[in-house]
Write a structure and sequence with these properties.
Chain lengths: 316, 538, 309
């Protein structure tokens, strides 16, 4: 790790390969310009964390899409109160919920709704937040004022409260609807953070240099400003994924979560609340599934962030 | 026969109900060795929904306080018998015209004497439409009442300072039984000058009074002290009450554990399994006057006529009430055997046809198949509930029980708020059953039956109408003796057991804990509220 | 700078109207009659319900209701709750408590989060970094009601170090435990944000320059790395203030705090338009001011950011 070697060195001497003399001396016009994005891919695929986290995410997605590959037990039928909060036994590796349903089957079948809510809300919020935030921060002025004020309107209404009201009005509460509603109130956070990061990136040397070279403003935004400003957004987005899944738990807890008996980790976590003193294991399994999923995305987020950051990439 | 005796008989009969109350109390009630008569007992409550005006207090948060601040003509003992407070006697020859005489010496805490006018004016205020009091319908059987326009209760006549007469629209033998309800409290003259201000700092004649003006800290607590002028049957042995408002029962439970609260009258779900070991010597779990059920609307396909009758019976018999109350509620509910409550005089677990409330998988399947022969069932059976009331656990258990027994698709249907659920109910947009519950206003079978199932009654949401039931109820109300009345009410319930306009589930218990270190002699009334005046502290 | 501040405060006006209109409309659209629902299973006569509806102008169309509310607002009348209390009284009781709670939580998450994030960023990939990741994960995936219950049980009931719930006056000392619960979720965000920023900045030119100039390691870290890493963290703190104030429904419930979150939540469930809107209106003001401060802080933290006019 460069940071540690750097730390032990009282006087830093730039490594030679960091500043190849050729690059300064002449411009190779025949070579295709290296794009930040393809460089990022090159750097990512060399890191084991990338492959581990991707594999985990793939697994979660497969479970979400094809739950029956992983269990033959029905998560809703044959729930017998005689098994209430029962421990693991043959064919029921995680034991039973308070209602006597198989926990393993419920965790497997709950994946779909939870991942849909978490992933969809994160994607919408992140994409929208990045676009709006970078335009506002980069162009500033009137556009910034309008976008920031609209963001303020939605942000002044906290996500969970806004979602409570909106979901109470909507008749259908599917995972997609919940994801959309959470997105409506959550995008300004990403937008503001993106805006802040863009503000500090747009005045950096490489941007000034590009301006001096006569590169178009929009191109600079895409090629230089966004990749340099995106790091904090990716951090927030990967953490948000987890909080969206948990937000769905809070909404279920408050009675406006997924309707019509749709299973989700959040729903099961909130239902396990009554057993928190006596049967904490019921709560543990869906919470663990949630943790692993969030961990996978956090790790992936770290890799992507490093890959997109030219300075961090240079260190390897 | 003079009906005057009626009150006496009622008391004797009600006492029999007391038998069901004994038992489950935990620990030994040792008399407090060194009780401090000036010590304040802290207990849980919730922010009153309205200013503390007796005729506008219908929920438990305000009810607890109003009952402590006011003394009506009568009050209820632990077992639901009426005992005279301000009343000296309540008599009638024909169960229609009642003569009420008051005791001497009662005053409000502002020294104004409690007179016949204090009652008549208060009741007239409560009944007047433009005052928009939530309890106004409690006066609807008094001559002169009009629910649609302002009118005076002409049936109320002040004879002298200590006497007034009440004329009812039709005979009601057990009319005095309701007079312990908060709506029938007297009000001082000061109240009528500015009712809003009075509601903030009420002046009463009950066992307790406000510790000072502004003793009610909204959303936090209300401080009451013993009323020295009170000399009725509920004379406090403690110095006062600090009723602390909690948004969740879990917080209150933690406070009893942490030593910040003396008495908690509602143990939260999360502590059902542990409250007996957390408070080995200071808990109680006994039935209270709360009936819980779910209703099936008649307008749905498959749920009307003979087919509906068969299906309702099948659903009822497919629910294992015993197992659900044991596992989900940890025995803090008692399986239902009728439509009232075990703490009400006249309750019975021997009603003809009550076997429809027992779990019987074979019979349930048979009945369902019979109904399917009339018209095959399609679709999903759902039970709607308001998700803000902690109902999900039992709804899911009932759903599973039905699913496992009948093999049909069933699901719980949460509504975000009670208002949303009510809206679909009123607009006949329900897709299945709805949760229902009834907390008795006063300890009488009539109060559990008439408002819910009589044709056109206020809480008869599904529009149940049975001429046979209505007649039996009317005969019961006008009966010349309590035994005769009870017999009629029980027959009326047998009609309900055949029709099942609602599917009875269980009775809510009062499940309470208190701090053994600080308080003793904690007992609970028929309504599940602690008998505050008897609690000793110190 | 002054001009900029003034301009931003003026921009608050459309935000105020936008947010109040939006929220009033949403509360208005809630299904069901709020008055009928007040009485539970014991409804009074329909005539009584009609009268109460009229008293709260619920029989008027939406725009009339909103105009009545806004008209009252500018005369200092925020309306009444369905309990007959002035909304301004309710706000006066709830906001000071919530403000104390939110500030405590904000301070806790900022101090602890930045410290842990800084150390994790400096030792990326080491044991401390990995532990910080695990703790953040736990805090994200375990719901607040569990964290709250466990902390309450351990610290208040078992050890007796704190009062189990917060008393009516809600002094600072009693709010420490709930603030800890409230801060726990945002803590994870701040750790991750700080860590990311710090590890980026470690390789930035100005850090290399500073190190090359021979500045001591602690000075490089605190002055150059940390200061430059705080922009996204401060942004987050600014936007987090809102969720700390109104989003504390569960925490307030566990510790029986009479705060903004619980009050607004209850008002939404009851369909009390004026209460919800008044609280949100104040939140809008707090929000805009907090974000303005954040924007001004940007300039102080990062010399490259300047506000023209």
């Amino acid at each position: 790790m460069p940071s540690s070697t750097q730390g032990r060195q009282p006087h830093f001497v730039a490594a030679l390969e960091d500043t190849p003399i050729v690059a300064i001396d002449r411009l190779d016009e025949t070579q295709k310009a290296s794009s930040t994005w393809s460089d990022a891919w090159d750097s990512m695929r060399r890191r084991p964390t990338f492959w581990i986290s991707s594999a985990l995410i793939l697994l979660v997605v497969i479970v979400a899409l094809f739950p029956t590959l992983f269990t033959q037990t029905s998560p809703t039928a044959n729930c017998l109160l005689g098994n209430s909060n029962g421990g693991p036994e043959a064919d029921h590796p995680f034991g039973f919920t308070r209602q006597g349903c198989d926990i393993y089957a419920r965790v497997i079948f709950g994946t779909q709704a939870s991942v849909t809510v978490g992933l969809l809300a994160t994607v919408i919020v992140t994409l929208f937040g990045i676009i709006v935030g970078s335009l506002a921060g980069y162009y500033g002025g009137f556009l910034d004022a309008i976008v920031s004020r609209i963001g303020d309107i939605f942000f002044a209404i906290p996500t969970v409260l806004g979602a409570i009201v909106l979901l109470s009005v909507l008749p259908d509460r599917s995972p997609i609807v919940i994801a959309l509603v959470l997105s409506i109130f959550a995008w300004p956070q990403i937008a503001r953070i993106m805006r802040g990061a863009v503000l500090s990136a747009r005045n950096s040397d490489y941007v000034n240099a590009s301006v001096a070279l006569g590169v178009s403003k929009f191109k600079i935004l895409i090629r230089h400003v966004v990749p340099n400003a995106i790091a904090p957004v990716i951090v927030i987005a990967t953490v948000s994924l987890g909080t969206f899944i948990v937000a769905e738990a809070t909404l279920s807890f408050l009675g406006i979560g997924l309707g019509g008996g749709i299973m989700s980790w959040g729903n099961d976590i909130s239902q396990a609340q009554t057993g928190i003193r006596t049967a904490p294991q019921v709560l543990m399994y869906p919470a663990a599934a949630l943790s692993v999923t969030v961990l996978a995305f956090l790790m992936l987020g770290d890799v992507v962030r490093d890959a997109l950051d030219p300075q961090a990439r240079a260190r390897r | 026969m003079r009906i005057k005796r009626l009150g006496v008989v009622a008391i004797a009969f009600a006492a029999a109900g007391a038998l069901t109350l004994s038992g489950c109390a935990g620990g030994t009630a040792e008399p407090a060795a060194s009780s401090d008569a000036s010590a304040i007992v802290s207990t849980n409550g919730s922010e009153p929904q309205n200013p503390l005006i007796p005729t506008n207090t219908t929920e438990t948060g305000g009810g607890k306080i109003v009952t402590s601040l006011f003394a009506g003509l009568v009050s209820y003992s632990a077992t639901g018998e009426i005992q005279n407070e301000v009343a000296d006697s309540i008599e009638s020859d024909d169960a229609t015209t009642w003569t009420v005489t008051l005791k001497d010496g009662w005053t409000f805490t502002n020294d104004e004497p409690v007179t016949a006018e204090s009652f008549v004016d208060a009741w007239n205020y409560g009944a007047l439409l433009s005052n928009a009091q939530s309890s106004s319908y409690f006066f609807d059987d008094i001559v002169g009442y009009d629910g649609a326009a302002d009118s005076e209760l002409t049936g109320l006549k002040v004879v002298d300072d200590k006497t007034f007469t009440v004329e009812l629209a039709s005979p009601e033998a057990d009319w005095p039984l309701r007079l312990g309800y908060t709506a029938f409290s007297p009000l001082p003259k000061a109240a009528f000058a500015d009712m809003a201000a009075f509601g903030e700092n009420p002046i009463g004649n009950g066992p307790y009074m406000l510790a000072s003006d502004g003793a009610w800290t909204h959303e936090v607590k209300i401080e009451l002290v013993t009323n020295p002028a009170y000399d009725g049957v509920r004379k406090p042995v403690n110095g006062g009450l600090s009723i602390v408002f909690y948004a969740t029962q879990d917080a209150a439970y933690a406070d009893v554990q942490g030593g910040n609260l003396d008495v908690l009258d509602a143990v939260p779900d999360s502590a059902f399994q542990t409250y007996q070991s957390d408070f080995p010597d200071s808990y109680v779990n006994q039935p209270a006057a709360v009936f819980q059920a779910f209703n099936m609307p008649y307008y749905l396909a498959h749920w009307s006529g003979d087919e509906g009758k068969l299906r309702r019976a099948a659903i009822s018999m497919s629910i294992d009430r015993k197992e659900i109350t044991d596992v989900i509620f940890q025995s803090t509910r008692t399986p239902a055997t009728d439509f009232t409550s075990p703490v009400i005089a006249g309750y019975s677990d021997q009603l003809k046809g009550a076997d429809v409330l027992e779990f019987n998988a074979t019979k349930a399947k048979e009945l369902w198949a019979e109904a399917d022969a009339i018209s095959p069932y399609t679709g999903t059976f759902d039970i709607a509930y308001n998700a803000d009331g902690g109902h999900q656990g039992w709804v899911d258990a009932v759903i599973n029980s039905i699913k496992n027994t009948l093999g049909i698709d069933a699901v719980g249907k949460p509504y975000p708020t009670f208002a949303a659920a009510l809206d679909d109910r009123e607009n006949e947009k329900l897709t299945g059953a709805t949760r229902a519950g009834w907390q008795g206003d006063y300890p009488s079978l009539y109060n559990f039956l008439s408002p819910l199932y009589q044709t056109g009654a206020g809480s008869n949401y599904e529009g149940y109408s049975s001429a046979e039931f209505d007649t039996l109820l009317k005969e019961g109300a006008a009966a010349s003796s309590v035994e005769a009345a009870t017999a009629k009410y029980q027959q009326a319930q047998e009609v309900l057991l055949k029709d099942l306009p609602t599917i009875p589930l269980w009775y809510s218990n009062v499940t309470a804990v208190w701090s053994a270190d600080t308080v003793s002699n904690v007992a609970f009334g028929w309504d599940g509220v602690p008998l505050y005046s008897e609690i000793t502290k110190g | 700078m002054l001009w900029y501040t003034g301009k931003r405060l003026l921009q608050m006006i459309p935000v105020f109207f936008g947010a109040t209109f939006l929220i009033y409309f949403m509360v208005f659209s809630l299904p069901g009659d709020p008055i009928a629902a007040l009485f539970g299973d014991h409804p009074p006569s329909p005539a009584v319900i009609e009268q109460i509806r009229a008293e709260y102008n619920l029989d008027e169309p939406f725009f009339v209701q909103y105009l009545i509310y806004i008209g009252g607002f500018f005369q200092g009348d925020l309306g009444t709750t369905y309990s007959g209390r002035a909304v301004s009284d309710v706000m006066a009781a709830a906001f000071p408590i919530t403000a104390r709670l939110a500030l405590l939580a904000l301070a806790m998450e900022a101090v602890a989060g930045i410290f842990v994030g800084l150390v994790a960023g400096l030792r990326k990939g080491k044991f401390f970094d990995a532990s910080a990741l695990v703790v953040s994960l736990l805090l994200i995936s375990v719901p607040t009601f569990v964290i709250g219950f466990v902390l309450q049980y351990v610290f208040a009931i078992n050890l007796g170090w704190a009062r189990t719930t917060v008393s009516g006056a809600a002094p600072w000392s009693e709010l420490i435990l709930p603030a800890l619960v409230l801060a726990s979720v945002s803590f994870a965000y701040i750790v991750r944000l700080t860590r990311a920023s710090v590890s980026d900045n470690l390789s930035a030119d100005f850090v290399r320059t500073a190190t090359a100039k021979g500045l001591s390691r602690p000075r490089v870290v605190t002055v150059h790395v940390l200061r430059n890493s705080l922009v996204p963290v401060v942004t987050f703190l600014g936007v987090d203030l809102g969720s700390l104030m109104v989003g504390a429904i569960v925490t307030e419930g566990i510790f029986n705090i009479n705060g903004v979150g619980g009050t607004v939540f209850k008002a939404i469930r009851l369909g009390e338009g004026p209460t919800v809107v008044s609280f949100i209106a104040v939140m809008v003001v707090i929000f805009v001011v907090a974000n303005l401060l954040v924007d001004l802080l940007y300039a102080a933290l990062d010399p490259r950011i300047r506000y023209a006019k």
